[in-house]
Amino acid sequence: MRFMCVGDSMTIGRAGDFTWRYRMWQHLEAAPDGPHELVGPRTGLYDAETGTASSSAYAAADFPPAARRHLAGWGEGWLHMAPLIADAVTAHRPDVLLVSLGLIDLGFYTDSEQTAENAAAFLTAARGANPHIRIVLLPVIPNVRAETDAPFAAECARFNELLAKATADLATPASPLLLASHPPAYDIHTATYDGTHPNPTGEHHLAAAFADAMHQAWGVGGPYTGTPGRRARETAASGTR
């Protein structure tokens, strides 16, 4: 089964990150129903020095170049991915999209209603390229701005309501949609390095949200088995990241 991770800065990661995509690859490699594969048109991490997605400096040396493939971009949201997804699905033939988008849209580009419209356009385009594609959607997760900006927090909550409604209304037997749950233990003070972007602990939480949703709803993969001990060791080794 072929999976494409689609997202913004939390998904692409920056130089020196493991990324939740790496955690997902580890999970899928160990799943009993494989083989599984990560696909997509991009492989790089964001390089803060150049402002481009040109880095290959993943923290995990065992992350194979072929498994680094994705469709994610620093500063890119539903607005940017909707026009790209049909070509990406056609070219790379994913069976499942794992999508984490919305925060950057609401923070810089569109309000909740407009963001929901762009999400619907994305879903329509993906299905136009593959009428049988499965899609797992992650709601906008806790972030530091929402803690201090009440109007922004309200927009995040409203978009999550609209995303849940779209998931329920637009799901079909041929192309099921699945809304992953907020990671229950996701604390921005311990799961991120800056209040928004995941550190090693947060990466495990995000991968688990997708993995557990697919396992529970579709029987795909298995339950996520990333361990707190591993998370703690990697967080300590990576400092604040």
Average pLDDT: 94
Inertia-based shape: globular
From the alpha carbons, calculate the radius of gyration and give it in angstroms. Answer: 16 Å
The description of the largest β-sheet is: 6 strands, parallel
Helix content: 40-55%
What sequence of helices (H) and strands (E) makes up the elements?
A: EHHEEEEHHEHHEHHEHHH
Gross CATH architecture? 3-Layer(aba) Sandwich
Low-confidence segments, given as residue ranges, are 228-241
- Helix-and-strand structural type: alpha/beta
CATH class call: Alpha Beta
Total DSSP E strands: 8
As for the number of domains, it is 1
Describe this structure in words.
The protein is α/β, with parallel strands linked by helices and 241 residues long. It has helices at 9-12, 20-30, 78-81, 85-92, 103-109, 112-129, 144-148, 150-170, 188-191, 200-218, 228-237, and strands at 2-7, 37-38, 45-47, 52-55, 71-72, 96-100, 134-138, 177-179. The longest helix is centred in the middle third of the chain and has 21 residues, at 150-170. The radius of gyration is 16 Å and the shape is globular. A hairpin with a 4-residue loop joins strand 3 and strand 4. Helix 6 (112-129) packs parallel to helix 8. It has one domain (2-237): SGNH hydrolase (Rossmann fold), CATH 3.40.50.1110.
Brief summary of the model shown:
Helices cover 46% and strands 12% of the residues.
Keywords:
single chain; 6-stranded parallel beta sheet; two-stranded antiparallel sheet; Rossmann fold; 11 helices; 241 residues; disordered C terminus; alpha/beta
Write the SSE topology.
Elements: E1 2-7, H1 9-12, H2 20-30, E2 37-38, E3 45-47, E4 52-55, E5 71-72, H3 78-81, H4 85-92, E6 96-100, H5 103-109, H6 112-129, E7 134-138, H7 144-148, H8 150-170, E8 177-179, H9 188-191, H10 200-218, H11 228-237
Parallel strand pairs: 1-2, 1-5, 1-6, 6-7, 7-8
Antiparallel strand pairs: 3-4
